[in-house]
Amino acid sequence: MAPALKPLRAFHNIEEWANRHRAGTEAEFAADQKMIEQINKENNKFRAWILSKTRQTPKRIEYLVVVQFGPDGERNMPQQGEPARLRVVFADNTATRSWDCRRIENPVALTSFKTDSAEKLATYHVTVHIADSHDGIHPLIDTTPASRTTPESPAAAAKSNDAHSDLASSSHDVSGISDCSPVAFLQKGDAGKLALTVANAVHVNFWMTASEATKNAELDALEHFCGRHKGNVSERQEKAFEYFVLLRNPDFYGVPVAVS
Fold it and tell me: Which residue stretches belong to region Disordered (predicted)?
């Protein structure tokens, strides 16, 4: 039998092993929290498109919002499962309140058009309570006849009637707009493609918070794992558990194995 390899690090007992892993989890969370606080201070803005309302009740409105990656990619954007809030920043530098948002998979209608720009878009589900809603929010895809496609503040509404095309029309023809090089296209049923351009975009800003869900799950799993070796188990089973966890030579080497 080959000699046992000596581990680079061994633990004296289960408690030491658990304490080190617990401290590592908490240190990782603290580092994430510090990084998120720094990102929030940067007040990064991203180009975005408010595609449509997905649901409306007497108490809230839900929107589908597509956001383009920033200069650093998606590093400063909320990922799936990470809590965050989003606000819309208008051309006149006014802004909405911050609304709850969560990142979701990009819609098939968007990903079906494989372009370099389309690969750099993230989709968010945004929930707006009626009390915090904003009159300047106009989705690109709307069923109302008077829908407008460029969200804007009420103060700037009168000045922008001639500045943007109504891309929510059936043709979605943007050839006459000089600053509308498509960032991506969205398949809109049988009506053809809806171009996502600079002309019909807004800017959004995220406020992120460090999620304690992962940290708490890891700590709960650690407590559960460390407690499994206690209870109705034989001494030999407990020693085997300690061997795999502590990385120390088991004390039961040399103990004869009972043959039933």
Answer: 137-171
Secondary structure tally for the chain: helices H, strands E: 5, 8
User: How many whole angstroms separate alpha carbon 78 and alpha carbon 210?
Assistant: 10
168 phi and psi angles, rounded to 5 deg:
-85, 0
End-to-end CA distance of the chain: give it in Å, rounded.
24
Of 173, 133, 134, 176, which Cα lies nearest the Cα of 157? 134
For residue 127, the tally of other CB atoms under 10 A from its CB is 17
CA-CA distance, 73 to 130, in Å (whole number)? 32
- Rounded to an integer, the average pLDDT of 40-61 is 93
Paired residues of 47 in beta bridges: 203
Structure tokens at 224: 């559960």
Residue with the bigger pLDDT between 119 and 11: it is 11
The continuous run of DSSP H or E covering 245 comes out as: helix 235-246
Phi, psi of 255 (to 5 degrees): -75, 125
Q: What is the pTM of this model?
A: 0.68
Tally of residues, the chain:
260
CA 141 – CA 189 distance, rounded (Å): 11
In the prediction, which pLDDT does 4 show?
65
Neighbours of 30 (CB within 10 A): 12
Compute the C-alpha angle 181/119/149, nearest 5°.
45
